[in-house]
Design brief:
With 100 residues, the protein is α+β, with helices and mostly antiparallel strands. The chain has two domains: 66 residues, no CATH class; 31 residues, no CATH class. Helix content is 24%, strand content 10%. The protein is built from two helices and three strands; from the N terminus they run H-H-E-E-E. A hairpin with a 4-residue loop joins strand 2 and strand 3.
């Protein structure tokens, strides 16, 4: 399975292929896929937020396209680019994760 096929399964169509066109760009879904590939190449994992997830549940997956289960009660809040959100990003730094 390719990353694109993985995202077709786990992404809301309206947030992925449904945006391919003149308004968002004809290659929108390919650009989203390339962004996820970049995250996988740099960190070894990527996250789909609950807003993009086909199940409305956030998910983390690794470069082998395996869903990584979150530890109960210890979910890390991450930005879309894979960086840990901490205290200096818009007043938040990128050193320590915020556990929620």
């Amino acid at each position: 399975m390719t990353l694109y096929e993985f995202l077709l399964i786990h992404y809301k169509p309206s947030r992925f292929q449904g945006r391919d066109g003149p308004e968002w760009g004809h290659n929108y879904s390919r650009n989203v896929c390339a962004s996820y590939q970049d995250d996988l190449d740099h960190t070894g994992y990527a996250c789909i937020s609950r807003f993009e997830s086909a199940t409305n549940v956030p998910m983390k997956f690794n470069a082998a396209l395996e869903i990584v289960p979150e530890r109960e009660g210890n979910r890390i809040n991450r930005m879309g680019n894979g960086r840990k959100r901490t205290e200096t990003d818009a007043g938040i730094s990128f050193n320590a994760p915020i556990l929620i």
